[in-house]
Amino acid sequence: MNFFELVRARQSVRMYLNKPLEADKLQQILKAANDAPSAGNLQSYEIYVVRERQHKLALARAAMDQFFIAAVPVALVFCAHSSRASAKYGERGKRLYSVQDATIACTFAMLAIVSQGLGTVWVGAFDEEGVRKVIGVTEELVPVSILPVGYPAEAPEKTSRRRLDDLVHEVS
Predict the structure, then answer these.
(1) CA 137 centroid distance within chain
(2) Taking 90 as the threshold, does the pLDDT of residue 6 lie above it?
(3) pTM given for the model
């Protein structure tokens, strides 16, 4: 599938098959995230791979009881690593660039997931401290998103989008 087909194929999946995830597919997802652009090429983010059921269940609880997170073979947690960006870019790097870096890496991972026939959904609603506790990190890292990764057990309908003339503004 070409890039535009891939983008159109991406949907938010919240139901998954009880099927293991192949190691090579996970490796491709992580490589795609690593290929994402970042401010100053600092890659001011970290990715945590969560496989154990008890940890996925704790993530689901921290994510406001979104229990589909516990039903996948792997959940990825993307965290902004603010000190990596602030060393070069100061406060703006700490507050913004590290979050952007984590977000871009997560987006690349999401597209890699879809390209391999897998499903995911961007989970951003969660208790940061609860997620930190599950993955065992300090406040230096800011959880930005959780991506559950698995084989979809549903094919959600395409959601509506804003019209381009409502979204795009020409500056003259």
Answers:
(1) 17
(2) no
(3) 0.93
